[in-house]
């Protein structure tokens, strides 16, 4: 009888939350984590007047200890036992998410992040592609005009074109973009981000391509121009029909180089409030601190440069084919 | 008879060096003039002043009785307006030592290019003309080949067809066989000879005495920018020349 009483007493004492918390604390201090977890889990849910904080604290402690011992399932059980009583507890819910996360295999995590980030990145890359295609369209024309001006033999045109090349090739693209977007308003020209980016990239790449095109034109044998002119062609006709078509195979490899650099250089426009691939990646990274998003952005850039590389290699073979036929 | 082309006191200098030094020449329709002489004697330069590829410094040129190619401005001789020079060039064909075919065009396109781009002919018509001209030089079977796949002799024959397609009134040949392997000279020589027989007016600058002997009406020996001797082939080849320099050059060649 006395034994039974003692037992009941013990149970009654054990059932006291304060006592349980104290003993769990002791167990922790003694390094007996298993015992501590057991005790924390015994802390009962409070009744109406009970201490909510103590209960939450105990179950969270238990969950954390399980987690520390890599017993993820049991950590989830601990959190779930808490959520059963307080389904809206924010701390428990976010901790449960973190544990589920930790339980997930790496490849699954990667897959989830990819599915999560890729749509936004692709949306951003549409702007990148727009910038690339626009510049690819405009800069060869601008470059050709500048190159023709350079070799025109007209002193004023030649100097002007030299000057344009000197400025745009001699200063950083980033600086040029800043100048166009932040600097021009000072003299009354205010441009939106997209026009600023298009103008900056267009001028910069025109200047680079101009020198490539010029060297291409000058690499064509002088006899070609003479033969064209000797049959009565004007300088313009000779350029258009005879000289420039022959430059394609000479200039295509360096132009491919420039266009691949261009794909990456578009990232610079993220600094003038343009939301493209780089800026999207940056925003997502800052919101999540998840490095995967940066790797994914790198993959998208790589995908673009790869497609371009192969496309231009094919074009190169076609343009130079007359040498082998 | 009025000469087709007249050159009067032509001077062309490169810096101090007078490549063409006060040369006058008149060529009748149908006449074949062959200019020989050592390298650097100014033969090619003279030829190139005729179609203004090399603008002359002073002198005068008349084509079909009218001043051509150059105008006087402020007492200085300058090339005429580009439009007029282009028009003149359509009437004077030129064949180059290095052929200068357009490598990015097929053989037929090479020959069509002038008529289509310069004369504005329709492509089907230009192609027809091109095939005729290629037939004339024996290259009609190569119409769709590209120049890179042709031998030197074949290239030069295409270049001749290209010049012919413009229906020129005269053709300038600038050392047409000098870049050819010896065994390929014959085919080009025969082609040019056939043109000569058909009555084409031509000026041929060459080291090949065959042209002077077999084709020329007039042979000119040029040295240091001037004509040292001028005469019929018989004058040059069938008897000793008065001028020892001319004779020694001819002796060296044979």
Mean pLDDT of chain A: 89
- Note the run of SSEs of chain A as H and E: HHHHHHHHHHHHHH
Portion of residues in beta strands of chain A equals under 5%
Radius of gyration of chain B: 18 Å
List keywords for this structure.
heterodimer, A: 325 residues, mainly alpha, Serine Threonine Protein Phosphatase 5, Tetratricopeptide repeat, MetI-like fold, 2 domains, 14 helices, B: 254 residues, alpha/beta, six-stranded mixed β-sheet, four-stranded antiparallel β-sheet, 12 strands, globular
Protein topology:
The complex is a heterodimer of chains A (325) and B (254).
Chain A lengths: L1 H13 L2 H14 L2 H10 L9 H17 L3 H14 L4 H14 L2 H45 L4 H16 L2 H11 L9 H27 L2 H9 L4 H31 L11 H12 L3 H28 L6
Helix pairs in contact in A: 2-3, 3-4, 4-5, 5-6, 7-8, 7-10, 7-13, 7-14, 8-10, 9-10, 10-12, 11-12, 12-14, 13-14
Chain B lengths: L4 E10 L2 E11 L4 E5 L6 H8 L7 E6 L2 E2 L2 E4 L2 E4 L2 H10 E4 L11 H12 L4 H14 L15 H13 L5 E5 L7 H16 L3 E5 L3 H7 L2 E6 L2 E6 L1 H5 L6 H10 L1
Helix pairs in contact in B: 3-4, 3-5, 4-5, 5-6, 6-7
Question: In words, what does this structure look like?
Answer:
The complex is a heterodimer of chains A (325) and B (254). Chain A has 325 residues and is an all-alpha fold. Chain A has two domains: 15-103, Tetratricopeptide repeat domain (Serine Threonine Protein Phosphatase 5, Tetratricopeptide repeat, Alpha Horseshoe), CATH 1.25.40.10; 111-324, MetI-like (MetI-like fold). Chain A has 14 helices and no strands. Chain A has helices at 2-14, 17-30, 33-42, 52-68, 72-85, 90-103, 106-150, 155-170, 173-183, 193-219, 222-230, 235-265, 277-288, 292-319. The model of chain A has no long low-confidence stretch (mean pLDDT 89). Helices cover 37% and strands 27% of the residues of chain B. Chain B is of the alpha/beta class. In chain B, helix 3 crosses helix 4 (123-136), helix 3 (107-118) packs parallel to helix 5 (152-164) and helix 6 packs parallel to helix 7 (209-215).
């Amino acid at each position: 009888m006395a034994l039974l009483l003692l037992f009941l007493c013990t149970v009654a004492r054990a059932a006291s939350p304060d006592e349980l918390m104290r003993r769990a604390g002791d167990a922790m201090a003694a390094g007996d984590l298993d015992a501590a977890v057991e005790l924390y889990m015994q802390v009962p849910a409070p009744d109406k007047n009970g201490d909510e904080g103590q209960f939450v604290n105990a179950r969270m402690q238990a969950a954390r200890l399980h987690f520390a011992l890599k017993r993820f399932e049991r950590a989830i059980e601990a959190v779930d036992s808490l959520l059963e009583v307080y389904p809206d507890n924010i701390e428990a819910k976010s901790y449960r998410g973190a544990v589920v996360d930790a339980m997930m295999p790496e490849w699954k995590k990667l897959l989830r992040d990819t599915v999560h980030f890729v749509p936004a990145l692709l949306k951003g890359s549409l702007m990148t592609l727009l910038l690339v295609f626009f510049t690819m369209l405009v800069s060869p024309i601008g470059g050709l005009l500048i190159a023709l001006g350079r070799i025109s033999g007209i002193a004023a045109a030649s100097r002007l074109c030299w000057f344009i090349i000197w400025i745009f090739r001699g200063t950083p693209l980033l600086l040029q973009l800043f100048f166009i977007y932040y600097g021009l308003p000072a003299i009354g020209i205010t441009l939106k981000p997209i026009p600023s980016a298009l103008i900056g990239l267009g001028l910069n790449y025109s200047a680079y391509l101009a020198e490539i095109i010029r060297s291409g034109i000058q690499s064509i044998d002088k006899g070609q121009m003479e033969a064209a002119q000797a049959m009565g062609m004007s300088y313009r006709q000779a350029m258009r029909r005879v000289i420039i078509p022959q430059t394609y195979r000479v200039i295509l490899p360096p132009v491919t180089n420039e266009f691949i650099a261009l794909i990456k250089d578009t990232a610079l426009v993220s600094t003038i409030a343009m939301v493209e691939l780089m800026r999207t990646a940056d925003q997502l990274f800052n919101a999540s601190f998840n490095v995967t998003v940066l790797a994914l952005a790198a993959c998208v850039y790589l995908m673009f440069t790869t497609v371009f590389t192969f496309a231009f290699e094919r074009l190169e073979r076609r343009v130079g084919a007359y040498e082998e036929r | 008879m009025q000469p087709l082309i007249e050159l009067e006191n032509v001077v062309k200098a490169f810096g101090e060096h007078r490549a063409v030094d006060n040369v006058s020449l008149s060529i009748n329709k149908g006449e074949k003039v062959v200019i020989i002489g050592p390298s650097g004697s100014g033969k090619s330069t003279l030829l190139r002043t005729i179609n203004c590829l090399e603008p002359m410094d002073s002198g005068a040129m008349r084509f079909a009785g009218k001043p051509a190619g150059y105008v006087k401005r402020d007492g200085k001789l300058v090339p005429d307006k580009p439009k007029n020079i282009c028009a003149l060039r359509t009437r004077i064909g030129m064949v180059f030592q290095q052929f200068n075919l357009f490598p990015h065009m097929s053989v037929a396109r090479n020959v069509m290019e002038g008529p289509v781009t310069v004369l504005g002919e329709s492509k089907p018509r230009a192609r027809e003309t091109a095939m005729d001209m290629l037939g004339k030089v024996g290259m009609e079977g190569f119409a769709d080949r590209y120049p890179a796949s042709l031998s030197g002799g074949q290239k030069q024959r295409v270049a001749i067809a290209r010049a012919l397609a413009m229906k020129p009134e005269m053709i300038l040949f600038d050392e047409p066989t000098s870049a050819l392997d010896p065994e390929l000279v014959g085919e080009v020589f025969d082609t040019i000879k056939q043109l000569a027989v058909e009555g084409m007016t031509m000026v041929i600058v060459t080291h090949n005495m065959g042209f002077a002997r077999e084709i020329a009406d007039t042979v000119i020996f040029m040295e240091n920018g001037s004509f040292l001797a001028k005469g019929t082939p018989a004058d040059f080849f069938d008897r000793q020349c008065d001028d020892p320099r001319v004779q020694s050059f001819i002796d060296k060649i044979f």
